[in-house]
Design brief:
Tumor Necrosis Factor Receptor, subunit A, domain 2; alpha+beta; transmembrane; two-stranded antiparallel sheet; membrane; signal; 369 residues; Major surface-labeled trophozoite antigen; rod-shaped; Growth_fac_rcpt_cys_sf
Length: 369
């Protein structure tokens, strides 16, 4: 109770003093008086004075100590979103602050990063790395088959068809004998399969070997030509086919063999036809001359395609027929003669019996009544 009256007395005395004095004492910077105190008070940390009262530091400002005349703005790389704060916060990783009085730090843009707090700018991604999202604290390596050959990439570029990359910096063209099969994003070029080839740098796809050509191995830079005596009717082949017996081919890189013509024979598939011998015949596709059977001869008038009967055969047949006819006639004559002779014998026998039958009887016997 005594203390209360003492305070009232002090206030009353101060009012009387200021009322009758020529002027009041102004509170120094960083202090304030609300007319109820006989002395000025320091503003608390996080605020400053406007000579009448302490006001809180607004967002983007701070006051670290008490008795501050003014609040300080947040420096670049720092921010403060709340009022009446004693410090500004450093921008976290993945953000930056390039202005003062920031309420919030800005996110690092794609293609940049920040792995240290309190930074005023973000760092571009190095070559061979990328970052496609905002507010990241690191960049990522480009995967094989994709590249970034400059700083600040937000995406890695696919290697085009006919190119490949393993170092994330440059796409290298495929060497002859390899390709990417027409696709993008290859880390290595693939060797052409057997039956295909690529003779240039940067092949997107390997080409099929033509008809009459072949490629027995992978990664071929060119196709090989079929040798003489061989052929290949299809594209994209890994081998040539031998000509069948009776056919031949004397040129390289051919898609078919040639039939050996009639009147000729072809013992080798890699050389031309040979005339058929006079004593043989050679139909089409003959690998060797064929001999006619006995009593037959080649039909030379029609390029010896077949055998025909020899002249001696006709003579032999005629003689044989004549002999058969003569034999048959002889047999018939002999049979006829024998039949005639038998008839004569029978007639003679009949005549020899007739006189005895006609001789009269001397004393005939008569019978009857």
């Amino acid at each position: 109770m005594v203390k209360l009256w003492l305070n009232i007395l002090i206030v009353f005395t101060m009012i009387l003093t200021c009322s009758f004095a020529s002027d009041c004492i102004e509170c120094p910077a960083g202090t304030y008086s609300n007319h109820s105190d006989i002395s000025c008070s320091n503003c608390t940390a996080g605020s400053c004075t406007d000579t009448k009262d302490c006001v809180p530091c607004p967002p983007g400002f701070y006051s670290a100590d008490s008795g501050q005349e003014a609040c300080f703005e947040c420096e670049r790389g720092y921010n403060q979103s709340q009022p009446k704060k004693t410090e500004c916060k450093p921008c976290p990783v993945g953000t930056y602050g390039n202005k003062t009085q920031l309420l919030l730090c800005e996110l690092c843009n794609p293609g940049t990063y920040n792995n240290i707090t309190g930074q005023t700018e973000c760092v571009p991604c190095a070559k061979g790395k990328f970052q496609s999202q905002k507010g990241r604290n690191q960049c990522l390596d480009c995967i094989k088959g994709r590249v970034c050959n400059e700083t600040g990439c937000d995406v890695c570029t696919l290697c085009q068809a006919g190119e490949a990359s393993q170092n994330a910096l440059y796409c290298n063209p495929c060497m002859p004998g390899t390709s990417t099969s027409g696709k993008e994003g290859y880390s290595v070029c693939v060797g052409c399969s057997a039956g295909t080839f690529c003779s240039d740098i940067g092949c997107k796809v390997c080409d099929d070997c033509k008809k009459g050509e072949y490629s027995p191995y992978s990664s071929s830079k060119k196709c090989l030509k079929c040798n003489i005596g061989q052929y290949q009717p299809k594209v994209g082949s890994r081998e040539c086919l031998p000509c069948d017996p009776g056919k031949y081919q004397i040129a390289h890189a051919q898609s078919k063999c040639i039939n050996c013509p009639p009147g000729y024979f072809c013992p080798n598939t890699n050389s031309g036809p040979i005339d058929c011998p006079d004593n043989a015949y050679c139909p089409e596709n003959s690998a060797s001359p064929q001999t006619c059977q006995a009593l037959f001869v080649p039909n030379n008038a029609s390029l010896a395609r077949y055998c025909i009967p020899d002249t001696i055969l006709y003579v032999t047949v005629a003689i044989s027929l004549a002999m058969v006819i003569l034999i048959v006639a002889s047999l018939a004559f002999a049979i006829a003669c024998r039949i005639h002779k038998n008839k004569i014998l029978k007639i003679e026998e009949s005549k020899s019996l007739l006189p005895s039958m006609r001789k009269p009887v001397k004393n005939p016997d008569y019978q009857g009544l």
